[in-house]
Every structure is written in structure tokens, then in C-alpha cells.
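Lab notebook, bench 4. Still working through the backlog of constructs that have no structural model yet. Next entry is a single chain of 167 residues. Request: give me the C-alpha cells for it.
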Amino acid sequence: MNRLPKLIVWFLTLLFVQAFVFDSMLLGTPFVPFIYVLLLILLPNDLASWAVLLTGFFIGLSIDFIYVSGGVHTTACIIISYARPLFIRAVYSDTISLQNLKIEQESFGELFRYTAFVILVHHFFVFVFVAGSTERIGWLLNAWLTNSLITILASAFILVLTQSIRK
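Model written out:
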């Protein structure tokens, strides 16, 4: 399968699952995994930086339309997209050539470490923007850590299930 159709299928599938399966009203809990972050994590490493930023913008905008969240997901996705090269260098520092790195083909341990790192940073910015003030620091820490843990576990489950498809 060509790379662009594969990315579009991933985008539509994860967007559908995020909207209709992991909906907080449907699940009856304020803690839901934001699995759409996998779209940013599994983007090819050889994309131009403007394409990564634009992709992050449209992923976040789509989620903001679904959750009517006023731009918090778009902002967090743009921050993650902008800092993506730093995250890749931090996690894959022992790789000789980062240009030839194919994240989706890395070992599960390395991919899990990268995924957890990106999810923690993404969720931190989402909940900082949602909290809006330092008076809600307890809620912020609780929501950030709980949602991050749920998202990391759900993402690991999805990565294990789709391992053969991604390679």
C-alpha cells in the first residue's frame, strides 16, 4: 500500500474511533484516551517540517470540531508537531541517521518509549490549556496523569494489534 492512502486510512480510522468509541459522554467518564495522538507519532520521518505542522493543525482541528473544545487540541498538536524532531532525537539518540529512521518499523520498546513521551507532553499542554489557571492545579495533575496513562495503555494495545499492518 502506498504511503499517502495508508496515512489517510489511519487518519479516518483513528478519527472515527476517537469520535464514536472513546467519547466521554458515551463512556460515562471524564477520562478517555486521546488515541488520535498516534497519527502524529506514526507520521513518516521524512516529511517536510511544514507538512508535519500542517498535518498537526488539521488533526487537532478535526478533534476540536468533534469535542467542541475551542482549539486546545489544535494548539497541543501544533506544539507536538513543532517539537517532533526534538522528541525523535531524544528517544532515538543512538540511531546513526535520523533521516533514514522509520519510526513505525522500530522495535516495540523504542516505539513505546517514544509514544509515551509524546503522549505525556501532548496531554500536559491539552490540560494546561483546559485548566486555564493555577487554582486548578490538583485537577490538572489528576486529569493529565490519568488521561496520559489511559492513552498510553490504549495506544500500546493499538500498536500491538496493528504491528503487522504498519510494517
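Notes after review: The CA atoms of residues 54 and 78 lie 8 Å apart. The chain has one domain: 3-87+104-166. Flag for follow-up if needed.
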